[in-house]
């Protein structure tokens, strides 16, 4: 029965994720200029190979990777063989990175850097679609696109179809969207309307169900060396997105995916994509999460997904050729909006200024200059500001310490209550990426009923720490563990109240000192035992 449920869940997950993947793959393929077929074949090849080797993740062309590739192609007017050379080298670099310690480092990238980059990519993707949705030629940069938008004539039919697409993808009720994604609804309705009204708009001119041909890279040494910088950028962005997707899916499934295996699988899959002229891609968070939420648990989902896409490609290629580019542009605008980190925007007014500086720098460099430079500059700035915070703390004489009496008290507590009550001291700063490791330590220790987190530092929490703490609380509460916080600093208490963490834990579970928290946990245990005896 368990195996049947697993197969059923993987089958449903494959169907749902393929429905999400299809319009995105078509749109990403058209955006790069390599054609819609290159996008769909990338979704098929990469998902299958990376899934079989690496695990139950759904892979394919994604927003950040496509933006990088599109920028390279449009800015440098690369020929197909040069593009294939760049993608093949990037795939090799991914495999080499997987053999190094680098895959484990991505979880230590500060949250403002990740958020600034994703917000920048989302806005960049939206800006680059303004011309196609108005029926104009696509632009290589947002500034060029905005100039063209106001200097070239607008196609009213394209604008109407694009507007209909936007209404569908943004206003489709969530209940319907869960069953049948709004992007595929918009794709079908927009195409049918354009055909029925005989709209004079640009359409997908080429999409083939034939297996793609082998395309060899250019082995000329000068060309190879010229392509290395572009390949490194592509490899780093794709690898980072894949590793971050792995962290998100591990959080959903309570598993631990090997980052090295994940990355090597992506590299092998992308090499196959490059040699067939298909798009470079990465593990896709949205598609993988859709598959997991539909019940997928094993790598079988990565087989079902490409099979569904292959069937659609063979049976409906005639329909796909009629899809208007303005409809794809509307879908990409929604994808860009979804990439934007709205979670951060809700708490941005409570964020420290240092985090906002980092986020702003990464955001503007991503949109108006260079994506990889933006990430590097953001990490450097975040490191410098963090060093400054540590130095400022040291100059004030802030020094964490343990009271011997507290230590003896905690040892006695563990002995008497058989580890039902545990106390954890959080000293100094902690980061978003360390949340999984911290929670895993308690998942392995069964029997815990009350976990007391004692935050002893006087420093306000930065965005990374806020989301780390929120993740810890949610995951512990899912295991029916009561979380209590010991917070001595009034400013930190106010900060936690402003961002709703106090409400999440409960006012009665916030204490000024450890003794009160332990006494409360003891009382609750005794009350539970009395209720059991009375029953």
Topology, please?
Elements: H1 2-32, H2 36-54, E1 59-60, H3 63-76, H4 80-98, H5 111-128, H6 130-133, H7 142-151, H8 156-171, H9 174-179, H10 182-196, H11 221-253, H12 259-275, E2 282-283, H13 285-293, H14 301-315, H15 317-320, H16 325-339, H17 342-347, H18 353-368, H19 371-395, H20 404-417, E3 421-426, H21 435-443, E4 450-455, H22 463-478, E5 482-487, H23 490-498, H24 501-505, E6 510-511, H25 514-534
Parallel strand pairs: 3-4, 4-5, 5-6
Antiparallel strand pairs: 1-2
Helix pairs in contact: 1-2, 1-3, 1-13, 1-14, 1-16, 2-12, 2-14, 3-11, 4-11, 4-12, 5-16, 5-18, 5-19, 8-10, 8-16, 10-16, 11-12, 11-13, 18-19, 21-22
Descriptive report:
There is one protein chain. With 535 residues, this protein is mainly alpha-helical. The protein has 2 domains: 381 residues, no CATH class; 131 residues, STAS domain (Transcription Regulator spoIIAA). Helices cover 68% and strands 4% of the residues. Strands 3-4-5-6 form a 4-stranded parallel beta sheet, sandwiched between helices. It is globular, with a radius of gyration of 26 Å. About 4% of the residues have low confidence.
């Amino acid at each position: 029965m368990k195996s049947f449920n697993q197969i059923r869940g993987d089958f449903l997950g494959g169907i749902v994720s393929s429905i999400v993947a299809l319009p995105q793959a078509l749109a990403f393929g058209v955006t790069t200029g390599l054609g819609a077929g290159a996008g769909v074949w990338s979704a098929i090849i990469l998902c299958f190979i990376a899934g079989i080797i690496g695990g139950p993740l759904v892979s394919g062309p994604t927003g950040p990777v496509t933006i990088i590739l599109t920028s390279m192609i449009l800015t440098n007017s690369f020929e197909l063989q040069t593009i294939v050379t760049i993608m093949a080298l990037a795939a090799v670099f991914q495999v080499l990175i997987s053999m190094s310690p680098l895959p484990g480092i991505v979880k230590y990238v500060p949250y403002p850097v990740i958020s600034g980059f994703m917000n920048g990519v989302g806005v960049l993707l939206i800006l680059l679609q303004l011309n196609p949705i108005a029926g104009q030629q696509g632009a290589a940069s947002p500034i060029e696109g905005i100039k063209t938008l106001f200097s070239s004539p607008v196609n009213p039919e394209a604008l109407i179809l694009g507007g209909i697409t936007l209404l569908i993808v943004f206003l489709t009720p969530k209940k319907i969207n869960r069953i049948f994604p709004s992007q595929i609804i918009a794709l079908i309705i927009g195409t049918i309307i354009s055909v029925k009204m005989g709209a004079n708009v640009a359409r997908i001119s080429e999409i083939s169900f034939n297996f793609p041909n082998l395309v060899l890279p250019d082995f000329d040494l000068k060309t190879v060396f010229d392509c290395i910088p572009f390949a490194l950028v592509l490899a780093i962005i794709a690898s980072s997105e894949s590793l971050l997707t792995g962290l998100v899916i591990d959080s959903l499934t309570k598993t631990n995916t090997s980052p090295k295996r994940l990355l090597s699988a992506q590299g092998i899959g992308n090499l196959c994509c490059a040699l067939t002229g298909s798009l470079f891609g990465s593990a896709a968070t949205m598609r993988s999460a859709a598959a997991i939420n539909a019940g997928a648990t094993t790598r079988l989902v990565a087989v079902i997904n490409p099979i569904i896409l292959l069937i659609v490609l063979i049976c409906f290629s005639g329909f796909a050729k009629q899809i208007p580019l303005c409809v794809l542009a509307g879908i990409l605008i929604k994808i860009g909006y979804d990439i934007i980190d709205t979670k951060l925007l809700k708490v941005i007014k409570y964020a420290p200024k240092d985090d906002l500086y980092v986020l702003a720098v990464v955001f503007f460099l991503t949109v108006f200059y260079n994506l990889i430079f933006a990430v590097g500059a953001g990490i450097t700035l975040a490191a410098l500001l963090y060093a400054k915070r540590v130095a400022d703390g040291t100059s004030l004489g802030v020094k964490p310490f343990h009271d011997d009496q507290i230590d003896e008290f905690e040892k006695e507590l563990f002995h008497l209550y058989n580890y039902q009550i545990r106390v954890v001291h959080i000293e100094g700063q902690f980061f978003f990426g360390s949340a999984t490791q911290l929670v895993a330590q308690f998942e392995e220790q069964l029997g815990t009923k009350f976990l007391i987190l004692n935050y002893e530092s006087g420093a306000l929490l930065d965005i990374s720490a806020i989301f780390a703490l929120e993740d810890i609380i949610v995951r512990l509460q899912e295991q029916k563990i009561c979380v209590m916080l010991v917070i001595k600093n009034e400013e930190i208490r106010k900060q936690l109240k402003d961002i709703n963490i106090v409400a999440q834990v409960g006012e009665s579970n916030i204490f000024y000192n450890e003794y009160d928290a332990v006494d409360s946990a003891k009382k609750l245990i005794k009350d539970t035992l009395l209720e059991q005896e009375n029953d």
